[in-house]
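ENTRY TYPE: protein
CONTENTS: sequence, C-alpha cells:
***
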Amino acid sequence: MIIMLGGRNGLIGMFTQGLGAGKLVFAYGMAGLFLGYLYFSIPRVVTTVMAAAKKIDPMYEEAARTLGASSFRILKDVTLPALAPALFSTGALCFATSMGATPIQVFFKITIPLARPGIMAGALLAFLYSFDEVALSSLLSTPRFITLPIRIMNYMELTFDPTLAAISTLLILASLVLIVLMEKFVGLDMFVK
C-alpha cells in the first residue's frame, strides 16, 4: 500500500508531478517505514482500543455531561484516562513489533509485565482463599495429605485452647505481609480508582 502511494511510480508521486511540484517519493525512507509500520499496526490498535472502549461505563460520560463538562473536557478527563492502559499496551506492542520482535518475545517482554499486577493480585487472592476453603479441602484431601484448613477444623473440634487464636493471628499477619509486599513490588493503587 505504501509503495503504491509513495513509491517511484506511486499515485502521490504522479499527482505531485502533474501539479508541477516534482515527483514526491517517500516510500523508501524513514517516512515510508514509519507509515508502513503504522499501516501494519492499525488493526491491533483498533481492536484493543475498541475492546477497552466497550468496557467504559457510559454513565461516567453522562455524569460529566450533566455536570457541565464540554465534549473536549469529557474526552480529556473521562474517556482518555479510561483508555490509557489499552493505548499504552498497544503502543508498546506496536513498537516492539516494529523493532522486529517475535510474538513470543512480545508476549514475555510486554504482555506479561503489563498483566503482572493482575496476575499477582489473582495469585494472592487464590492463595488467601485457599486458607478458608474447608469444604473443598475436606472433599479433595486424603488421610495421608491433610491441608491446613482441615487440620484447624479438626483441632477446633477436639481441643479447647487459645492455639487457634494464635494461628488465626499469624494467618492475618501473613496475609498483611503478602499485601504489603505486593504493594511494594507491584503496586495496588492501580486497582483502586
